[in-house]
């Protein structure tokens, strides 16, 4: 994953928006990333759209040249802020912003520090273009502290808060009810992997989420996990962080850890198969089965491969055809 072979320096944004129930709005936001009014972004592709009706949340995977990605994501965000009103937003998943999260990840020939610079520039542009827009920064965009997304969310009460009045953003005015608060940052790739258990017991779900969380002694390194009611069952929602590992080598799907490199820096992350197996074992110990696993988008390697293919073939709306090519 160290070089694209195309002369492109690629990065990705997994744009999290607080809308899933109005499909036309979600697709309009995704298409804005590809350019309109003559402002096309030829080195950008929307690789995937994942919308969850219960959560009322969509994740739009936008990938492209690091030089184009900031403007592309800005266009999508401007469309989202026009279309989504947090005053009427409803959904099970915690959220504070119409555009809730904008993480930038390096894919190939780009260092995470450069993604941080793109994220900071994007934050400044959003505050200029969107009245009432409020931003908090994390990771490589949060200088000099470089606090993680989890640290910032805990500080802001993101997991439980619905009162915006006392929030203090890093950029912009105090959050307006319509726009809310948006997190912008950069880090090594973070994958989303969700596993549903065949139970309605939220307490049990929280126990399983706690058991696999990387912050716990016997947890999975780099895994952040929460439990939510979802479609009549309980879903264990995991953010799977990539972490630097200079001993890493390319691995198989059956391994606990998967490995890749960007510009000679080696990274590992816990395999989605291993996460599913661990949750299945913990649920089985309580006499409960699992229903399935959902990977929201791609692994880091899949994202890079799809981005290269889509941009080489000039396929902006790759999300419409990806099933026939890569799945």
Notes on the protein architecture:
This protein is of the alpha+beta class and 327 residues long. Helices cover 29% and strands 30% of the residues. It has eight helices and 16 strands. It has a seven-stranded mixed beta sheet with strand order 4-5-1-6-9-7-8, with helices on both faces. β14 and β15 (265-270) form a beta hairpin. α1 packs antiparallel against α2 (66-83). The mean pLDDT is 89.
Query: Would you list the SSEs in sequence order as H and E?
Result: EHEEEEHEHEHEEEHEEEEEHEHH
User: What shape does the CA trace take?
Assistant: globular
Strands of the widest sheet, in order across it, are 4-5-1-6-9-7-8
Radius of gyration: 19 Å
The count of helical stretches stands at 8
Q: How many beta strands in the DSSP annotation? A: 16
Q: Briefly note the structural class of the backbone.
A: alpha+beta
Mean pLDDT: 89
Into which percent range does the helicity of residues fall?
A: 25-40%
Strand content: 25-35%
What is the end-to-end distance? 19 Å
List low-pLDDT spans. none
The biggest beta sheet is recorded as: 7 strands, mixed
